[in-house]
Design a protein that fits this description.
Elements lengths: L5 E4 L11 E3 L5 E5 L2 H10 L12 E6 L3 H8 L7 E3 L8 E4 L2 E4 H5 L9 E9 L8 E8 L10 H12 L2 H5 L1 E10 L4 E5 L1 H5 L6 H9 L4 H5 L5 E4 L14 H24 L9 E7 L2 H15 L9 H6 L4 E6 L15 H24 L2
Antiparallel strand pairs: 1-2, 1-5, 2-3, 3-8, 4-8, 6-7, 9-10, 9-13, 10-11, 11-12, 13-14
């Protein structure tokens, strides 16, 4: 008998207005309310396979199987954060128009979901899956924050947001972040106001505070943070900072991937990213980081002629990840020969900032 499947509130969101949801039976998929433009973006992205690694995988569009459930999904405020789904349907497939993903082939036996009727709620890969205590940064990219459909009032508001923040000066802005201190065993969350108050001069300190939660840079930001203590904490849990070599490896991975994304968007000038973000994720739990690091070293020793099992590769724990997200105002149909220089500037600046973080790490032994 199929286990009952609900939609529950996704509590790891650090920015944005959307009410993101998770399947109650697992954390493999995020359900995100969307407009047609974002759905079209993911569908058009299928024509650019070289870009697929840089965005969450899209498995289609879903909604609850009853009109009552649909109304709950569409409500701006959910009463208890839970939406029940109809389990009378037993198909193993979710349709994305011409694209059909057979989940059981990829995730069996980790994934179990009833068939859901198509609607405009995106069914996306949960890029936080595989992390124990994910540290998350939503970095808004570019200086243009509105599309051609924006009202005059919204255009003025978005222009003001850009010129009064680092969106205009650097082509990027902290939109939200959540960082885990592995010594104090607590999360610190920072809302939009924190990012909006950063300047070209002090944004490097904010980035260092995110990358090194047990540092003077994180301590200096305490007045701007809200804290959530780890309720599952135990006396025998390892309360130690993330080792320097782990952090260095993570930052280098971030830099390498951002360079690849930068190159890709330049090669696709027709790609117009407006209000999109780079989502940074790294493991903040010391024990989980140790385990993942050990696994990575073991995999490095695996002979080239011996392949990993697909399930192990897909579901293994992660040390870090970075993706482009949020495409409600983006599309693949810009009529131009060169990419937006302000967007490219943002990528250049975050690369430079991360390289500066590596230098500070060496100099200050972070």
């Amino acid at each position: 008998m199929m286990e009952e499947c609900n939609l529950v509130h996704f509590d790891q969101q650090v920015a944005g207005h959307d009410k993101l949801m998770l399947m109650s039976t697992n954390d493999l998929i995020v359900v995100k309310p969307c407009k047609k433009r974002e759905l079209d973006f993911y569908q058009d992205a299928l024509n650019f396979p070289d870009f697929q690694d840089f965005i969450p995988e899209c498995y289609g569009t879903v909604r609850a199987a009853t009109e009552k459930d649909l109304k709950l999904l569409d409500k701006s405020e959910l009463d208890d954060g839970t939406v029940k789904l109809d389990n009378n349907q037993t198909s193993d497939h979710i349709l994305f128009q011409s694209k059909i993903i057979t989940f059981r082939q990829k995730f069996k036996p980790h994934f179990n979901i009833p068939n859901l009727i198509c609607s405009q709620n995106l069914c996306l890969e949960n890029v936080l899956h595989g992390f124990t205590k994910p540290c998350i940064l939503d970095l808004k990219m570019g200086s243009l924050l509105y599309d051609q459909d924006a009202t005059e009032e919204k255009r003025k508001r978005m222009i003001n947001h850009s010129v009064t923040t680092t969106s205009s000066t650097l082509g990027l802005r902290f939109s939200g972040l959540k960082v885990y201190n592995s010594v104090q065993r607590r999360y610190a969350t920072f809302e939009k106001k924190y990012g909006q108050s950063r300047t070209a001069e002090n944004i490097i300190d904010a980035l260092l505070g995110f990358l090194f939660p047990v540092s003077i840079y994180a301590s200096n930001a305490e007045k701007d943070a809200k804290y959530i203590t780890d309720k599952t904490d135990q006396d025998d849990v390892k309360k130690e900072k993330i080792p320097t070599k782990y952090s260095k490896w993570v930052i280098e991975c971030f830099i390498d991937t951002i360079k690849e994304i930068r190159e890709s968007i330049i090669e696709h000038p027709n790609l117009q990213l407006i209000g999109s973000s780079l989502l940074f994720i790294y493991e903040g739990d010391r024990a989980a980081a140790d385990s993942t690091w050990k696994q990575m070293l073991e995999e490095d020793d695996i002979p080239e002629n011996k392949e990993l099992k697909a399930d192990d590769d897909d579901l293994s724990p992660k040390m870090c990840d970075i993706r482009l997200i949020d495409f409600a105002h983006s599309d693949w149909h810009a009529d131009r020969k060169d990419q937006d220089p302000e967007l490219v500037k943002g990528f250049d600046n975050i690369i430079a900032l991360l390289e500066d973080c590596l230098k500070r790490q060496r100099q200050e032994k972070l």
